[in-house]
Amino acid sequence: MLTIYDAPRCPYCARVRIQLVEKDIEHELVPLDLDERPEFIKALNPPSGRVPVLVEDGFILPESAVIMEYLEETHPETALLPQDPVGRARVRSIGQTIVADMQPLQN
Predict the structure, then answer these.
(1) What pLDDT is stored for residue 101 in this prediction?
(2) Can you give the pTM of this predicted structure?
(3) Cα dihedral 64, 65, 70, 72 in deg (nearest 10)
């Protein structure tokens, strides 16, 4: 079973939650309070315990963009990225623009 450690108000977690729903991937969502971050999440994603974190069969993967690429590659039957490399690069570029340029302003 795929487990996602998540914070409801976190926009990076929201990206992963949206992908999980769109790809219809069975998962367990474990919501965390970011104001009282548990020590176990710091051990999963040192040093600060940022979320989201994916855990699957002992495999631990932090960072929303990396999790999203992993889910796209391991669940290709519902592709969310274009098939051609140029199209995929354009979509990833838009996503990075949102994360790197717009997201800091929103927060």
Answers:
(1) 57
(2) 0.85
(3) 110
